[in-house]
Amino acid sequence: MLLKNYSNYTLECGTDEAGRGCLAGPVTAAAVILSDKFKNSLLNDSKQLSETKRIHLKPIIELEALTFGVSHVFQEEIDQINILNASILAMHQSINQLTPTPEFIIIDGNKFKPYKNIPFETIVKGDGKYLSIAAASILAKTYRDAYMETIHEEFPMYNWKQNKGYPTKEHREAIRKYGVTKYHRKSFRLLPEQLKLDI
């Protein structure tokens, strides 16, 4: 059973990201403030749910949340500022979209940078503990998956529709065969034996 709130504040937002470990595409974060009345027995950490369940929950969360925000930080920026900073930036940008502004922020994971002067707490495996983080994890994942399915049309040989940019064997084989695209993160080790990519 997921918990409603970590703090005693009414406007507590949960935030999470998707796509940190991918070789291609953006890292995507979402931030969600749920109302006190929000209940959903299906809602859990997005990694525990099937794609069908995540897609089913997305409009419910969007409709019933007090407010939510979603933000992509793309591969060029990931390469410039590194994946951890890009993940935190995506979270900050998604929190920026919230109205009303949260009074407290809970973050999945153990790394965050202060946002404005709002108190916050990082929670390891928070997406399996708190409703708002679980809701954020579902929005981040569904929005990112939808984006990867769109760019799949441009470069179908990498099968992003299926692997969403994660380092599957098939994705790595495609990089070996076709090289890298503008959507690949050049700062990542795209191939296990790679020392330097010829770009």
UniProtKB/TrEMBL annotation:
CDD domains: RNase_HII_bacteria_HII_like
Gene3D superfamilies: Ribonuclease H-like superfamily/Ribonuclease H
Cofactor note: Manganese or magnesium. Binds 1 divalent metal ion per monomer in the absence of substrate. May bind a second metal ion after substrate binding.
Record flagged with keyword Metal-binding: yes
Highest rank taxon of the organism: Bacteria
Domain named RNase H type-2: residues: 10-199
InterPro entries: RNase_HII, RNase_HII/HIII, RNase_HII/HIII_dom, RNaseH-like_sf, RNaseH_sf
Role: Endonuclease that specifically degrades the RNA of RNA-DNA hybrids.
Name listed for the protein in its UniProt record: Ribonuclease HII
Organism: Mariniflexile jejuense
Gene coding for it: rnhB
